[in-house]
Every structure is written in C-alpha cells, then in structure tokens.
C-alpha cells in the first residue's frame, strides 16, 4: 500500500474525516486531500503530526507495503 492509500485507510480506521485530521495536524483539508490523492507529499513536520494522530510511526506511514 502506498502512502496516499495508507493515509486514507488509517484516517478512516481512526474514524476521522479529512477535515478532522486536518484540524488535528494544523493543515488545511485541501492538504489532506492532496496527500490522499498523491498530488503532494507532506513536509517532515506534518508527516510526524500525521503519524502521531494516526498512532503509527512516520516510517510505518511512508513505507510502501504489499497487500495480500
């Protein structure tokens, strides 16, 4: 699973809307949309905030995984 898909999956798993995740990470909802659509990559500080809110490490968030 690539970063955009993983971000969306973890957000939904946590029961958060894109707007709620944006508020918790101090970015705009548009930024969350860009990340989830693969149009942009977050700055390292934002990546750390996303990982913290989603209860994963930054490495887990960005490491591409295979789905079975």
Secondary-structure blueprint of this entry?
Blueprint: H1 3-13, H2 18-25, H3 29-36, H4 44-53, H5 58-62
Summarize the structure.
The mean pLDDT is 95. The longest helix is centred in the first third of the chain and has 11 residues, at 3-13.
Written account of the structure:
The chain has 68 residues and is an all-alpha fold. The chain has a single domain (3-62), classed as lambda repressor-like DNA-binding domains (434 Repressor (Amino-terminal Domain)), CATH 1.10.260. Helix content is 62%, strand content 0%. It is built from 5 helices and no strands. It has helices at residues 3-13, 18-25, 29-36, 44-53, 58-62. The longest helix has 11 residues, at 3-13. The radius of gyration is 11 Å and the shape is globular. 16% of the residues are buried.
Please summarize the sheet with the most strands.
Answer: none
Shape: globular
Overall residue-averaged pLDDT value? 95
The N- and C-terminal alpha carbons lie at a distance of: 10 Å
The CATH homologous superfamily is named lambda repressor-like DNA-binding domains
Approximate strand percentage: under 5%
**CATH fold-type name:** 434 Repressor (Amino-terminal Domain)
Based on the coordinates given, report the CATH architecture.
Orthogonal Bundle
The number of distinct structural domains comes to 1
Number of strands: 0
Q: Rounded to an integer, what's the Rg over CA atoms?
A: 11 Å
């Amino acid at each position: 699973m690539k970063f955009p898909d993983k971000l969306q999956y973890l957000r939904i798993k946590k029961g958060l809307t894109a707007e709620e995740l944006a508020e918790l990470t101090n970015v705009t909802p548009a930024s969350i949309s860009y990340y989830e659509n693969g149009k942009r990559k977050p700055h390292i500080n934002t990546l750390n905030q996303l990982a913290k809110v989603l209860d994963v490490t930054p490495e887990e968030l960005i490491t591409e995984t295979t789905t079975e």
